[in-house]
Amino acid sequence: MNRPTGNLVRSFLRRSFCTAENIDTNLHTSKLQIFDRQLKRKQRDRAAWLINRKDSLVNTVADNLLDRLEDVKKTFPSALCLGGSLEAIRRSVRGRGGIEKLIMMDSSYDMVKLCKDAEKDYSSDNIETSFMVGDEEFLPIKESSVDLVISCLGLHWTNDLPGAMIQSRLALKPDGLFLAAIFGGETLKELRIACTIAHMEREGGVSPRISPLAQVRDAGNLLTRAGFTLPGVDVDEYQVRYNSALELIEHLRAMGETNALVNRIKFLKRDTALATAAVYESMFAAEDGTIPATFQVIYMTGWREHESQQKAKRRGSATVSFMDIQKEFGGQTS
Amino acid sequence: MVRGSEMVKISKTLTEILVCPLSKQPLRVCDKSSSLISDAIGVSFPIVDGIPCLVPRDGEIVETEDAPSECKADSFDSKNNHKTT
């Protein structure tokens, strides 16, 4: 605001050549920027005020994710919870995984503050919580310092997903667990179709309205590329029914999941928006008039390497022939 | 040295594990400006209401001349010793 005029003119000039005003000041200009992280922070600030604690989608995903902690015998005394459905995770922990210390991080200050203020409601479960504002792409955590990293519906907004996962792995102690849920490529497919049709019809072209999302087949590769051992991926699809397409948008807004693409067009014409809602309703509405929306959630688990973990033997190190195995057991199966 | 509300209060858990998000080097607490300072890159990150804000964009470049005088070195290790003096 109070910058000298020279700077202002310069920034104006620069801005006029660039589709995104923040891209020039971004720290990694060489890297591909898909999402506007600063805008996402603002959207999450807003989501902190709109948050719905009874959001069944978010609660189910958080519960499902934490449920995995009960499948392992190991306990995780210190845990780091990355952005996304932070508040839902805090509510769903309920003593699972033997978490004693929980560090909650989000890129939005208001979201962290909300969790901090809500902390007094959970004082009964004896978890020591600490709060910080941080960016998953620049994780400010010392190497080998936590037993568990949880990320619930946050990592699909990172520009550099492998990078963020590598940083999470480094933050983990050896034999530490990485648990993440992200939205997958099938998410909001109905809205994607409706948006495209309405845009073609009203504006004669298409602009990106819905994020590119990771596909299921990418998730396994992501985990191995980030160096996690024993990678595990599974997928769940949820269908949420809304009374109207506008309610869907309101839900997305309350989750902080609205468009944050760098190349987005910054306004949406009213009649295009209404056309989208109309297309959505005519193409996908159920008989009872409700509007279904698909949310595909990819759950990823990975461990930081440790010598106690099982691994495949070296190729060619087998001492028993498969012929012998068949001789030994073949008779029993037939 | 008790400053009441001005005192920077961040939990021990955090001081043990936090590092600079950009350089991954240790941070030190500056009580006076209530911020975390990364000496490696000369950037200070604010602590707002006990919540450290370590998003690179929130950081401010510290002027090198007045940094040592304004913020007494309170590294995490020497913090407790320093307070008793």
TrEMBL record, chain A:
Keywords: Methyltransferase, Transferase. One of its GO terms (molecular function) is S-adenosylmethionine-dependent methyltransferase activity. One of its GO terms (biological process) is methylation. It comes from the Eukaryota. This is Methyltransferase type 11 domain-containing protein. GO terms for cellular component: mitochondrion. Residues 93-179 form the Methyltransferase type domain. It holds the Pfam family Methyltransf_11.
UniProtKB/TrEMBL annotation, chain B:
InterPro entries: Trm112-like. Residues 64-85 are annotated as: Disordered. Residues 69-85 have a biased composition (Basic and acidic residues). Pfam families: Trm112p. Belongs to the PREY family. This is Protein preY, mitochondrial.
